[in-house]
Specification:
Elements lengths: L14 H6 L5 H12 L1 H16 L11 E3 L6 E3 H13 L7 H10 L17 E4 L16 E4 L1 H9 L23 E5 L8 E5 L7 H14 L1 H25 L3 H6 L2
Antiparallel strand pairs: 1-2, 3-4, 5-6
The structure holds zinc ion.
The site of zinc ion has 8 residues, from helix 6.
Length: 257
């Protein structure tokens, strides 16, 4: 699982430009005015998010459906924040919009363009680490937007749980590359040789992150995907060795290493 570089852009740097990108009409101006009043709330919540993410405790943030506008009885709703993300941040490619610029920058943080959740598919979209439908405060917060593939995005959202052991690894903050958490075993008495992958729960290392990886692997069915890929590779390689041997071309086999 790739550890990505934390986004270097904060919500403060583009939020006003983002909301100003709505056409001027009575309805939009009413919305823009209310969205501008929660700017400081979003900035302070972003700081809180980063503090919690650094200690893998984002699961303590309470789900909500609206954002209270300070010094007012009014709120910004979940739907309004979701549409701010969809219409103003995702926007359309090559639109030159500031929101799209931020979207493309965040997508570019993927290592080798690959999804950090599964490491097998290209990251073609952004995932809300805390889903926008349940945490609208973070709908356009850069550190909550993770480049990922479409499959992981929908699987994760469909079964989101904020139980401590059921959160995903956060690619910007959780570094799981400093302990062993995946083991591959060769299955006994099986021909052709087959490999099986399993997440190892390391209680003496980081049990919280190990449990999260195990949950993530189960949800995304990664153990069997990795096994299938390894088995395919091995069988392909074995066939090429046997073919070269049978054709008497031992030299070709030597050179293929
Ligand atoms: Zn993925």
């Amino acid at each position: 699982m790739d550890k990505l570089i934390e986004p270097s852009i904060s919500i403060e740097e583009f939020y006003i430009e983002l909301i100003e990108n709505k056409r001027n009409n009575e309805k939009n101006n009413f919305l823009k005015n209310r969205l501008s009043k929660i700017k400081d709330v979003l900035i302070s919540e972003e700081k809180n998010y980063i503090d919690l993410a650094k200690t893998s405790t984002l699961h303590t943030i309470v789900e909500h459906t609206e954002i209270q506008i300070p010094k007012s009885s009014d709120v910004v709703t979940k739907d309004e924040m979701e549409s701010l993300y969809t219409q103003n941040l995702v926007s359309s490619p090559n639109s030159g919009d500031r929101g799209r610029e931020v979207y493309d920058y965040l997508k570019s943080l993927a290592l080798d363009k690959m999804c950090p959740y599964c490491s097998i598919t290209k990251a073609r979209t952004l995932d809300h680490y805390l889903p926008k439908a349940k945490f609208p405060t973070f709908a356009v917060t850069p550190v909550n937007l993770v480049p990922c593939c479409r499959d992981c995005n929908s699987e994760k959202d469909a079964s989101f749980s904020n139980a401590a052991n059921e959160m995903f690894i956060h690619p910007y903050y959780d570094d799981v590359n400093n302990f062993i958490w995946l083991v591959a075993i060769v299955e006994e008495n099986v021909w052709p040789i087959s490999f099986k992958y399993n997440v190892k729960i390391s209680y003496n290392q980081n049990s919280l992150l190990s449990n999260r990886i195990a949950h993530q692997y189960e949800l995304l069915d990664l153990n069997s995907t990795f096994s299938d890929k390894a088995n395919r590779q091995f069988r392909y390689r074995l066939k090429s060795i046997v073919d070269n041997y049978n054709s008497g071309d031992i030299e070709a086999e030597k050179f293929s290493y």
